Amino acid sequence: MTKEIACLLPDNNCSEFGESATGVKAGAQTPAFCYRITVSNCGFTPLRNLQVTDNQLGDLTAQFFPTATTLAAGGSVTKFFKMSWASDTTNTVTARGENTLVSGEIVRATDSAIAHVLTAGILCREVAVSVDDLDGNPFDNNVQLPADGHTHPVQFLLIVANVGQADLAHVTASSTVCQGGPGSFSLPAGAIVTNLLCTVNLSCSTEIADTATVTAVVDAAQGACAYDLQGMAVRVTSECEATVSCRVAGCRVTGGGRQESGQTFPIARYVTHGGQVGAPVGNATDFDPDSACIRGNWEHVRHVQGATVGNFHARSFDSLMCACLGCPQGNDSGVVMGDLCNADNTQCGPSPRKAPANKICFSGVGDYTMSRGGRDSRSVLFRVDIEDRGEPGTNRNPANDPPDRYRIRIWVLTATELAQLNADGNRLFAFRRAIACTPGSTATQDGAAGARGSAVFGVRAPDIDDGGEMDHGNHQIHPMIKDCP
User: Fold this and answer.
1) Does the predicted model carry a pTM greater than 0.90?
2) Which end of the chain is more exposed for a tag (fewer CB within 10 A), N or C?
3) Are 357 and 343 in contact (CB under 8 A)?
């Protein structure tokens, strides 16, 4: 007798038979095999009481001998069977019969066929790449475009790895954003390939998520059993995603100046201020208490009547936002941060030096010390709004070279507020969040609306509210130096 194995083909036929065959499974799909079993009487006398059993297929006697279990000398019976396996399987068939001439003599024969089963597997990773990516990682699955109102080229790359044991043929990829894809390609076991899906121009207003679907079928032409019992080709699929999102880039401010007017009580003879905020990092942040991504130093000094001096120093920063404001004269609408802000417009600046913004706002926690002999340091909350409107920021010729604007609001904390600031789990978050810089409140001239010394942002009036057009000095708003690690 003989037992042979072959691949089951989609037309319900069988491939060439042999002692073994190799199939490929993928998930719940398992390869289907054909078995050809032939029982032959090779002797010169008939055999009776024949039995045919298979360790995997069971008792096959009735299928071979449905009416009589006798096989004439030289006779032969062949049957075909279909079976699907999820792992390596060895089938052994046994035929047994009695010699009709020699009473009690039993003859038997066995034969085996081996089904090898390999695993098919595929993984994909989609990568978005842009020269204008702001997220600090140029080869991940997310691009953060600057909020500058302009389009930027974004490449969508597809990395496909064959993580299975079988070679894959006809690997195809589809994308929700890219049309066409890389076309069909083969991928041997263990191989990795990178293909370009497409290059598209996107703006920050186009927040998208591209889903790539990679499908591969087993290469039956290479001799693998690649169809299941339903005649469906064994295939593997993997999905991966890349996104394009918006990000408002950070910025920094340098400079300082002096003002003789524009203060609340107690009225100061003049105030001076200056420093640098946003260096070495100045990520755009609407609220992150004591942010590690906003660095710098800032001071504001009030020269009150007599010898009294009030000294403010920023301790930590909760928020930082930038914007590009249009001209008060209405001859330039302004562009959003990330590109040249009102390029070559001397009235809306910053010009001639180009910068991404002409407005910056930052807030946080500081210390305020009144000194006249003794010193009494108090914890405060603060918010600063600055407009960089030209070069240099003085009023030598206000018609063509308007002065920069500077405003600081300081809330000197009461004993109760100070206790809340230092208490675990409270830290005056609600107060600090209310005065923090937001895109809406930053995109206004001289900060939010409201007369100096009046309640703003839904909180009580500040204790100190100094600012206005600068009498002396200059501010410069620059692009951020580096992203926060």
Assistant:
1) no
2) C
3) no
CB atoms within 10 A of CB 75: 13
* Domain 122-247, architecture per CATH: Sandwich (2.60)
Burial (Cβ within 10 Å: 0-12, 13-18, ≥19) of residue 319: buried
Q: For residue 248, which of 139, 103, 146 has the smallest C-alpha distance?
A: 146
> Cα-flanking dihedrals φ and ψ of residue 434, to 5°?
-65, -35
Residue 148's region, left for phi above 0, alpha for psi from -120 to 50, else beta, is alpha
Residues in the chain: 485
Parallel, antiparallel or unpaired: strands 20-25 and 106-119: parallel
Provide the CATH topology of domain 2-118: Immunoglobulin-like (2.60.40)
pLDDT tens, per residue, the chain with 485 residues: 899 999 999 888 999 999 999 999 999 999 999 999 999 999 889 999 999 999 999 999 999 999 889 999 999 999 999 999 999 999 999 999 998 888 778 999 999 999 999 999 999 999 999 988 877 677 889 888 876 667 889 999 999 999 999 989 889 999 999 987 788 999 999 999 999 999 999 887 667 889 999 999 887 777 789 999 999 999 999 999 999 987 767 889 999 998 887 777 678 888 999 999 998 888 888 899 999 999 999 999 998 876 678 899 999 999 999 887 776 555 555 554 445 676 666 666 555 456 778 889 999 999 998 876 555 668 899 999 998 876 654 445 555 667 888 999 999 988 887 777 666 555 668 889 999 998 778 877 765 556 788 888 889 999 999 988 888 888 888 888 777 76
Return the SS3 of 222: helix
